[in-house]
Amino acid sequence: MREYRIALVLALAAGCVAPVQARTAIEEARDDAGPRAALTAPAAPRASDHLECVPFARSTSGIQIYGDAHTWWGQAKERYATGQAPRVGAVMAIRPFNNSRLGHVATVSRIIDSRTILLSHANWSSPGQIERNVTALDVSPANDWSQVRIWYAPSGGLGTTHWPVEGFIYNARPGAAPQALPLPGSRAEKAPAKSMRSAKARGAERPGRRSDPIGAIIAGRY
C-alpha cells in the first residue's frame, strides 16, 4: 500500500513538471496557415499590370491611336495633325532602332528651350516603369528634332543612343494649327497668342539665323 502511494505521488509530480500539450483552435489554425497569415503577400504581377508606352501615351495625350508604337505615325496621317516641332501634349513618335523593334511613343510635358524638352512616358528605363518630366535633347545636325537623346534612369543621365524620331503627333485635326495644351494634372499653360505673335515679329526683324546658344554648345560636343 505504501508503494502504491509513492508511485501515485511521483506520477502527479511528473504531470506538474511536464509542458502542457493542449493547443487552442486559434493556435492550430495559425500554424496551418503558415507565415503568410500574418503578412499580406505581394500579388504576382499580371500581364495587365505591365504598362506599355502606347496606353500611357494615349491616356496622357488624349490621342486615340491603337496598335504598336511604330504604327502611330502612319495611322496619325489621316486622323491628326503632325509636324516636326514639339508641343506640350503632343506625342513624339520614335522609329524602331537597335533593340527597340516596336518603336516608342512619349508625351511632351514641357518645352525647356529650342533643343530641350521634358517627356512623360512608360516602359523605357525599365519594363513597365512610368517616368514623368524626364529630359529629351535634340541632337540632330539640322536642329529639326529628327534625332534625340533621352534620359535613361539606370545611368543617371541622358542615354548615349541617338534615337530617330518620325515627328510629333498633335491632338488636332489634320491641317489644323497645333496648340500647346496642358497635360492632365499639370500646371503647363498655353502662351497668349499676342505674345507668340510678338515673338515671331521680333524674329522676322532679325536677319540671319536665330540665336541658339544651346545648339552651338551641342554642335561642338555631340
Automatic annotation (TrEMBL):
Residue numbers spanned by region Disordered: 180-222
Domain Peptidase C51: 28-149
Keyword Signal: yes
Pfam entry (one): CHAP
Keyword Signal appears in the UniProt entry: yes
Keywords (A to Z) from UniProt: Signal
Signal peptide: 1-22
Bias (Basic and acidic residues): 202-212
Full protein name: CHAP domain-containing protein
Organism ancestry: Bacteria, Pseudomonadati, Pseudomonadota, Alphaproteobacteria, Sphingomonadales
